[in-house]
Amino acid sequence: MEEQYLASPEAGLRFSLQNCLNLQIFLLYLRTNLEIVQTLTDVKTKFTKETYLYWYELMLLLRRFEEKAGQLYGMQKIRGFCHLYIGQEAIAAAAMTATKPGDKFITAYRDHALAIAKGISAKECMAELYGKATGCSKGKGGSMHFFSKEHGFFGGHGIVGAQIGTGAGLAFAEQYLGTQNAVLCFFGDGAARQGMLHETFNMAMLWKLPVVFICENNHYAMGTSVERTSNVLDIYKLADAYEMPADSIDGMSCEAVHEGIERAINRARENGGPTLLEIKTYRYRGHSMSDPAKYRTKEEVEEYKERDPITLVLNTLVKNKWINDAEIEAINERVKVEVEESVKFAEESPWPSDDELLKDVYMQQDYPFIVD
Predict the structure, then answer these.
(1) What residue ranges do the domains of the chain occupy?
(2) pLDDT tens-digit profile of 257-289?
(3) Which residue ranges does the record assign to the Dehydrogenase E1 component domain (predicted)?
(4) Which pTM value belongs to this model?
């Protein structure tokens, strides 16, 4: 029979069919084997197609929103300070897939992308950049002070390192209330020099607070490299002084960021206390809109652009045949429309009224302000 099969494919097919219970089982056998062959040619990943699609569309939205913000700033539609997140999108996207809706985020002044990722609409964020009453902080905060209690986003802080202590306070509140929520407290490599960090690390470890401290190390703080400002070049090692678990993460990889945050946040939920994650990333633009970024070479910037997290995620989608050209175009169009609508919303929104000036400053509604 083996010789007959080798000599005649038709005979082999008859043999296979005769030994199957029915045609459906045989077709299932063929399909299963084809799937195995296809799997061998795919990019191996533990994450699903849906996760990659989510990362891609969210990161693209964050990139296009920030690009538009930069353009509008140049047109003087947006005033004051403005710090763009371009290049760092993998952190925001992967933080979302590694956390639960009830978890709280708090960050510094480079806050637009994390706010949108956490659920604040692009319309509310753009309106806040314009200083309009429909903004997420009623037009009173501007670029550096996005806020939404509803979405668990607690800023947006202009004072370097101030959010580190507040982040631990949020974690204490979750612990006190007995929730299973945790806090992601983001700060930059420049803020790692602040005394607030050390005081907070000590207290957070003492009380085993459910907080993940995330240093978004983009290497240059406001414009000075880590090498020129710190004897400790691996920032995650600062945790050693407090016996705090810590790790260094590739911030250009959504997969690595997700896994790192997931490990840390699970530890926090299980009463294991805080973790310090140094997520090494890169901003393609200057520290703020006024920064020409002459302290780094063009070659270095181009090197990091070759590791653009948006491109890396899209490559995985394409190689796995999880997306086609039409679907890519559809995502691009959705993102384009959402950003355009956010600008239209901001342009057409009203300015805050004069009676808003002294509101939202103190809890006490009748606080005796001196207004003369």
Answers:
(1) 49-344
(2) 999 999 999 999 999 999 999 999 999 999 999
(3) 59-352
(4) 0.86
